Amino acid sequence: MSNAPQQTAATAENTLADIVSHAKEYGFVFPSSEIYDGLAAVYDYGPNGVELKNNLKQLWWKAMTQLNQNVVGIDAAIFMHPLTWKASGHIDGFSDPMIDNLDSKKRYRADVLIEEAVVQLEKRKVELENARENGAIPVKGMPWDNQGEIHDIEGKIKYAIDSLTIGTPFDLQNAMRELEIGEPGTGSTRWTDVRQFNLMFSTQVGAVAGDSSQIYLRPETAQGIFVNFLNVQKSARQKVPFGIAQIGKAFRNEIVARQFIFRMREFEQMEMQFFVRPGTEGEWYKTWKETRRRWHEALGLPAAKLRFHDHDKLAHYAKAAVDIEYEFPFGFKEMEGIHSRGDFDLTQHQTLSRKKQNYFDNDVNPETGKPYGNYVPYVVETSVGADRLFLATLCQAFQEETIVEGEGEEQKTKTRKLLRLHPAVAPVKAAIFPLVKKDGLPEKAHEIYNSLRHDFRLVVEEKDSIGTRYTRQDLIGTPFCIAVDHQTLEDETVTVRHRDSREQTRMPIAELRAYIGEAVSFSRIFEKL
Fold first, then answer.
1. Residue 64 assigned ligand-binding role
2. I need a labelling partner for 239 at 20 to 30 A (CA). Which of 209, 226, 323, 510 fits?
3. What are phi and psi of 304, to 5 degrees?
4. Does 252 show up as a binding residue in the annotation?
5. Domain 95-198 classified CATH 3.40.50.300?
């Protein structure tokens, strides 16, 4: 018998508050050390959250290192020699412009306030231009000319963008005044001076305090790859072009950490640095840009909610940079960055460490007829935030639909919430329900569990009505529910209920492994790439 919905409404837009509440209630994400009122911008992953996050990380890892013969992995230490961060520029230049409001005592990033003000100015400019195109507005019998206000707005936008490009505290301070930026919510314009705030966490290493030296918690994972470039190249017997992938924690003392797990002080990155022959970086940049977007779409993030955002302001060493943005409930925001970094990183480490980072390329250059010889490789980077990918996946999967059950006078309409996760990344692959807690059905359910537990993460649930159990599994994204009834004891068959359609299929227990395995395999995602 089919229980498929006769009518399904469009998925409702859910607020971030809905996502946060659901994540906590159903064991995905908790505020860290909540019994002590938590710690700002630090979160813990619960039983279902850690499974989902691990599945996403494994999916990324296999897509990088298993689908590409020329990409290998590494797991570098969080602590690194302090000169690493001198070479990378983090000690001298890794800071954000901080400003405090004197009335509320709250702290903000000046550049973010200015960027938000520019967005509002651009909206106002569009409104004025539309009014102008739609006809003059009479004022005291004369046509209304808004060109002056448009020019004024254009001037402010240019001034703000120039200030952001220069980026010094002095220029940002003047932009705050020029744009008359007030505090969000209060409008207060009483600000402190803008000052730079280094984002790296520091600590001391050494058994004796007097002999301690300052080291840092890494603010990014990329440098662990760069300092191991030659170690990996030689031990893995790789030829350029090749990549080194890594998943690991990074730490940034963010001034303003907000929007749930989107911006945290402790977060996880999934990065791949791809080392290429100088002159080929442009093509590889385009290749990885398109490859990474296809990966997100294959995972289930719709093309309409993804977009590229090319960087207008590049780092001094960068040749090109683009973000893959996802439309979160709070707007389009960066989820992954692809960067053409040139030879900056390896050259910097070569200079400061005095250790050559050259690669000898014995492939023949068709233009000269000789080997390419020694050079410092260029780098194309792909870097996705594991936590941001987790949040995007959760936001996309969290859906609400209207379903109609029954027919005629017995017809009922109700709302169903569910996590429409891809089966390959769902925390639980199948839940097994004995229809009643007697007659040998619980024992049979556990027998099925034991036969499949080596292959899939499963749960056995006996409490509450079977309808309530279905609802509970929908809310955590379980793709299949397996009902064990009295017929099961007679013919070794069970009823499999599908999360998305709510359709039910009767099948032999012996077929479950292959049936579930087909649906939850990473291959279902990889075949879309």
1. no
2. 323
3. -65, -20
4. yes
5. no
Q: Report the C-alpha gap between 387 and 269 in whole angstroms.
A: 8
Can you tell me whether residue 505 is helix, strand or coil? strand
The CATH homologous superfamily for domain 16-92+212-395 is Bira Bifunctional Protein; Domain 2 (3.30.930.10)
Cβ atoms within 10 Å, residue 262: 20
At 135 the pLDDT is: 61
Residue 435 DSSP code: S
CA distance 91 to 253: 14
Instruction: Give residue-wise pLDDT tens across range 20-70.
Output: 999 999 999 999 999 999 888 899 999 999 999 999 999 999 999 999 999
- Are 184 and 120 contacting, i.e. CB atoms less than 8 angstroms apart? no
* Residue 30: CB atoms within 10 Å: 15
Fold classification of 421-526 is Rossmann fold (3.40.50)
Q: Does the annotation flag 388 for ligand binding?
A: yes
Determine if residue 270 is labeled as part of a ligand binding site: yes
Q: What residue has token string 């290493």?
A: 205
Is residue 325 part of an annotated ligand binding site?
no
Average pLDDT, the chain: 89
> What per-residue confidence (pLDDT) applies to 478?
98
Non-local CB neighbours of 384 within 8 Å, separated by 6+ positions: 60, 269, 270, 271, 292, 324, 335, 336, 337
> What would the pLDDT profile of 454-477 be if each residue is shown by its tens digit?
999 999 999 999 999 999 999 999
51 annotated to a ligand binding site: no
Judge whether 506 is annotated as a binding position: no
Question: So where are the chain's domains?
Answer: 16-92+212-395, 95-198, 421-526
268 is in an annotated binding site: yes
| Residue 265 assigned as binding residue | yes
Is 487 annotated in a binding site? The answer is: no
Of the chain, the percentage scoring pLDDT greater than 70 comes to: 93
Size of the chain in residues:
529
Q: CA-based diameter of the chain, in Å? A: 91
pTM recorded for the entire structure: 0.83
Residue 201 counted as an annotated binding residue: no
Strand segments (E) across 252-386: 266-276, 306-310, 320-328, 331-342, 359-365, 370-375, 378-385
386 is known to lie in a ligand binding site: yes
Whether residue 264 is annotated as binding a ligand: the answer is yes
Q: pLDDT per residue over 262-321, tens digit each?
A: 989 999 999 999 999 999 999 999 999 999 999 999 999 999 999 999 988 787 778 899
When pLDDT is cut at 50, 70 and 90, the band that residue 4 belongs to is: very low
Residue 381 assigned as binding residue: yes
266 labelled binding-site residue = yes
Is 147 annotated as a binding-site member?
A: no
Among candidates 2, 3, 52, which has minimal Cα distance to 23?
Answer: 52
Q: Report whether 253 belongs to an annotated binding site.
A: yes
For residues 462 and 432, is the Cβ–Cβ distance under 8 A? no
Residue 149 is predicted with a pLDDT of 80
CA distance 215 to 237: 32
